[in-house]
Design goal:
Layout: E1 6-9, E2 12-15, H1 32-45, E3 49-51, E4 53-55, E5 58-60, E6 65-70, E7 73-82, H2 86-105, H3 108-123, H4 125-139, H5 143-170, E8 179-184, E9 191-195, H6 201-213, E10 218-221, H7 227-239, E11 247-249, H8 254-263, E12 267-273, H9 276-288, E13 298-302, E14 307-311, H10 317-329, E15 339-345, H11 346-362, H12 382-397, E16 401-405, E17 409-410, E18 416-417, E19 420-424, H13 430-433, E20 440-446, H14 451-461, E21 464-465, E22 467-471, H15 475-484, E23 491-494, E24 511-512, E25 533-538
Parallel strand pairs: 3-7, 9-10, 9-12, 10-11, 12-13, 14-15, 14-22, 15-20, 19-20, 22-23
Antiparallel strand pairs: 1-2, 4-5, 6-7, 8-25, 16-19, 17-18, 21-24
Bound molecules: nicotinamide-adenine-dinucleotide and 5-oxo-L-norvaline.
Keywords: NAD, Oxidoreductase, Proline metabolism
Family: Belongs to the aldehyde dehydrogenase family.
Pfam families: Aldedh
Length: 551
Amino acid sequence: MYRLQFRRCASTFSTRYTAKNEPILEYRRGGKEVKQLEETLNEYKSKLNRIPCIVDGKEVWTNSVQRQLLPFDHQHVLAEYCLADPVLLERAIESGVKNRSRWEQMPVEERANIFLKAADLGSDLKWRSRLLASTMLGQGKTIFQAEIDAACEVIDFWRFNVQYLASALAYSPISTRDSENTYIQRGLEGFVAAVSPFNFTAIGANLASSPALMGNTVLWKSASTAILSNYVVYKLLEEAGLPPGVIQFVPSKGGDFGRAITRSPHLAAITFTGSTDTFMTLWKWVADNIGNYRTFPRMIGECGGKNFHLIHSSADPTTIVYATIRSAFEYSGQKCSACSRVYLPRSMSKTFFAHMKSIMMNELKIGSPLQHETFTSAVIDRASFDNIRNYIEYARSSPTTKILVGGQCDDSVGFYVQPTLIETTDPKDKLMCEEIFGPVLTVYVYEDDKYDETLELIDQTSNYALTGSIFCKDENVLKKTRARLMQAMGNLYINDKSTGAVVNQQPFGGARLSGTNDKAGGPHYIFRFSSPLAVKNMKEPLKTFKHASME
Ligand SMILES: NC(=O)c1ccc[n+]([C@@H]2O[C@H](COP(=O)([O-])OP(=O)(O)OC[C@H]3O[C@@H](n4cnc5c(N)ncnc54)[C@H](O)[C@@H]3O)[C@@H](O)[C@H]2O)c1
Ligand SMILES: N[C@@H](CCC=O)C(=O)O
């Protein structure tokens, strides 16, 4: 059990708290964590989970009710949740504004300890199984994918953000004989709007809780397909001691939420993760209202990607296959960091394609995420299924692309899209440029002697710059490649897959239109939610207005 302990030394604070990454549990059949998880899965599955909005700490059961379905069995309604309409959103904003200064004035140690307590609760099997079960059912994640997201990453965000805050508080400006100088991490004036995506429970948890840790009040709008897991996160925080009215849990229609927050003069920041288009819409709405705000709203956005694996002829032939399978098809490619374009040298293409085909056709089990042997399951919803199917149809009809494996889509029970491997002869094909957000991987084979041109191609093909992997064992080539692709990603992997960033190991965020690159899971992220106050306190009265040179 960690408690944050600050100790005063002269005029500075310091702390003994150092976070560690939460160990990943294995969930082997018959183990105690599996037993607990199965009980919780059964509990959630056997009832209709009813979810209210929460405003000012009070449940609000609105008349507008929506349903969350199991993506892998869409006849099964997992939850019914209440939608906040524009009037309730106004109330939530008022509540946030009203509660802000009381929360901000709570001693920072007490605030931080709530999140450390939350991390401890999440680590324990009772809450851990709730986090996992709600994520597996609602978002269609396998046990491993749910564990690394809804348990480990959630817990890591809570612990490491506290560590970053503690280090920040250790900073003290120089005081002089005449003046005592202090530097205070203050919350933003107004409220923070957190808008989260469906694909990571941890992202929702982080978007809502980082601003809160820094003394802000938050309006949290979850994605409609991640409501149950996000509600579990909210309830966990409540049990950890988060006071009422610090986070308002307000599922709502995207447009209603976006309009309500951008209309309010009290908007202090939007912390968003989702598609680039949605972030651009929010940015435009803020611009439309720019004369109306009390402060400049901060825009923090982590957006889409078109992540690449670049393979050099010196790469290890087995690593490139395993890494590509994992990055492109785990969680059905629904990670912003998923590999969706590969640049492959002609000299390795035969063995690469043969190995990929063999694994994809014989070893990848696609099915219910509740079965241990499942590699990946259905995609999140009807809209996503239709969108991905359109790209596959396009690939079927285009003269420059060929589907090598997969391509089948079946929505009779769940929204299943078979992992699909495509080869294109057009490196600027839309399959190489646009984010698909599904299990569709396109490969462009380049001639070995065209490596430099291929670097140019990678850099120029997409407006996204989220993650990229270089597979190469030649140090000189690697050096040249890194220099050429310096701006082509926010997270670079060398001889590893382009997914799987871990808090405080690979702080995460993209460049270009992939986002504002504030690096969640890194030491600077929390400062986007702070408006520091520098204080100079004069010790002596002024004796003259004249400078020495004037004497
Ligand atoms: N870069 C990252 O760290 C990161 C991480 C996860 C996901 N993503 C990206 O997220 C996308 C997938 O997630 P998604 O489908 O949930 O994205 P999305 O943009 O459809 O939705 C994200 C959130 O925005 C809300 N929203 C939609 N319109 C809105 C509006 N006008 N005003 C306010 N809110 C609005 C949605 O309801 C949801 O809560 C992909 O593009 C993926 O790359 C990026
Ligand atoms: N932490 C994730 C990024 C989140 C994107 O959806 C990864 O690196 O796989």
